[in-house]
Amino acid sequence: YIAIVDLGSQYTHLIQKRLTYINVNSILTSEFNQDVYNAKAVIVSGSPMSALRDDIKEIQENIGNLINMGKPILGICFGHQLLSLMFGGKIIDNPEYGRTRIFINKRNELLYNIDSPAEVWMSHGDCVVEAGDAEINAISEKGCISAIKVPNMNVYGVQFHPEVTHTRNGELIFKNFAQSIGFDIKEISANERVSNYYAYELNNIKSLYKGGRVVSAVSGGIDSTVATYIVMKAIGSNNVIPVLIDHGLFRINEVEESKINLEKAGINPIYIDASEEFLNKLEGITSCEERRKIIGELFAKKLNEVITKENASYLIQGTIYPDVIESGKTKYSQKIKSHHNVGGIPKWFNIDIIEPLRGLYKDEIRELAKIIGIPKEILNRHPFPGPGLAVRIIGKFTNEKLNLLKKADKIVNDVLKAKGIYNNLWQSVVTISESWVGVKGDEREEGYIINVRLVNSDDGMTADYYLPPNNVIDEISNRITNEVKKITAVSFITSTKPPTTIEPC
Ligand code: XMP
User: Fold this and answer.
1) Looking at the domain 2-180, which fold is it?
2) In the CATH scheme, what architecture does the domain 190-379 have?
3) Residue 503 Cα: closest atom of ligand 1
4) Per-residue pLDDT tens for 15-58?
5) How far is the CA of 268 from the centre of ligand 1 (A)?
6) For a 10 Å CB count at each end of the chain, is N or C smaller?
7) 225 among the known binding-site residues?
8) Nearest CA among 317, 314, 315 for reference residue 358
9) 75-111 b/e with 16+ CB inside 10 Å = b?
10) Which ranges in the chain are annotated with CATH 3.40.50.620?
11) Is residue 224 annotated as involved in ligand binding?
12) Nearest atom in ligand 1 to 383's CA
């Protein structure tokens, strides 16, 4: 197996995913423990740390030991910088984020069949400018050393992230690495992996379930629908009680559409309208993290009321694999946002949790939804954050802004659907911010800005922006400024992730 040492990068779990899909076993750990020393090879991940500013001595000592033992090593991003330094290189502060071209000047085993220039994605603040005794294999358009190999050893570094889907042919780097050090590669399709998982999980739930009622919070989104569906399949739908809690932060018509779509999937939720309570609590709150907390706690309270009333024994949670890793890895990672679904379970909850999606990645849930025949209306829906439009209001949360946002959001999505664009996007994120002076019919109006962020992505981890043709931009902008009172400007966000996250906060 390969040991992945997680030094806290946002993407570390994707390294494991790439290896899984070429049938290479791996373990993920944030310690240089015995499992790492016993591995056939080691991958050292990226990190929020800086090799210029943070204490890296212990990490380098461990990497040094592994190299002395003759272990093949691949350093990614921060890992690449550590290796460069260890062999006498030099790094300076010079960031690269998002889409970058690299030029291969000397091909090593890892770069076999990789184009030059190659389009890769970067996410780092420091740049390797000298590689010391290591061989320089590729240089970025900005002049940073982007790939190295230590001569006569299987020790490699890449500054870019081959694990993210936006790096073209990134999976080939892992194949090349694994193959060059003697692993047998077999490509596994998403369908194959997910079908196996589904069969396993049905049995797993059957064997864990000891009777009683199971409550499930559904939103009409793909994750909660698939999670609920699997449990219904495993233990029978009579024992499962789906609940749709309306926090008032859904989009126009979304609740009605969700009810219809869920019914098509055989799920008929109890509907609880708690919107007034949620919106009153949120009014005037500026911090997005605080809003998430308020929503999470109130949601849990509402859910608990149902659990008590129904005397339920279990709760279904839509935890996915990256969340599982996230909760176990705190050593080096940094919190960007509190990414729990709204039902993030507080400590006072005393109920057994069923997590049918805990072994899957976001895009695999879509694959599973196809396999089990979830209605296409749910399948084609864009991911929508649990705290809903609350995370799309920039600055102070007010009910006025929320209502304007709902109207603008509907216009954007109606136009995108009419033009056949909507289904090709990962998400269309419409947000509201302050403020822009407008002139409407010779009158001054101080109004709000609607920001439209259209993105393409495979898993939400990296994203590229999408800009529609001019006539579509015109239609969206004109309709919003004409039809929605108090909106005086419309902007389209044209930055990739990284550095810009998909949701504004
Ligand atoms: P970011 O904004 O981190 O988003 O680039 C990545 C993906 O996660 C979704 N997202 C959330 N989902 N609760 C959720 O359930 C949240 O608080 C949350 N914040 C972001 C986002 O829509 C995107 O698909």
Assistant:
1) Rossmann fold (3.40.50)
2) 3-Layer(aba) Sandwich (3.40)
3) 2
4) 999 999 999 999 999 999 999 999 999 999 999 999 999 999 99
5) 26
6) N
7) yes
8) 317
9) bbbbbbbbbbbbbebebeeeebbbebebebeeebebb
10) 190-379
11) yes
12) 24
